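so my prof wants the structure for this chain in the tokens format not the other one, which i didnt know existed until like an hour ago. anyway here's the sequence
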Amino acid sequence: MSISRRTARSVRILGVASASAALTLGLAGNALACDISEFSAVAKCDGTKGVISVTDKDPTGVPATVTVYLESNGADERIVGSQDVKGTRQGVTIDFAEDWQPNATYRVHVKAGNQVDEDIKPNLTTPAEACTSPEPSTPPMTPSPSDEPSSSEVSAVSPTPTPSESTSPAPAGAGESTPSTAGGGSNLAETGASSNTVAIAGIAASLVVAGGAVVYALRRRGASNDR
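here's what i got, hopefully its the right format
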């Protein structure tokens, strides 16, 4: 049974269309699949603390688990941490707190369903300089003993009393009398003596005069008797 030319042509067109559809579906499937190239990792500083950041730019949003390992001599030394992430076209970043050392190597592994189960290549190498702490603030300087002002300097800058602060004695009040220069009770009051001192001095003088008169009389009486 021979196939007409028209039938052969129709079969050919159908085959091409089927192949094109299969190719289109294949490309679409690959476009919707999660890929390791959509993940990236970097070591950076968050202030004074080290951080390893992993970014997922999977537009399909396939849930993935990211695990970070510290490498030593080509083998895993310890696990830093593991986190889940669901990427977007713009990218979603997760951070792993790690006090990384300069030029250290980390392996970042990604597991996303049945589509991805591999490491980010190449391994992550940290910068040559570690995160530095801020410089401490300089404390205020304490003056040394040589910087302290001497007593002469202090006296030199001591305030001079104003006329209202004069140290001269205050003038006598209106109710006080000025001492008289003439003799009398006022002078005695200033020296602390009383009016009885004058009377006692007068009595003493009288006794001296009387005693002298008695002695003189006795001497004359003795002289008369001798004659």
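also thought this was worth mentioning. The first strand starts at residue 39 and ends at 46.
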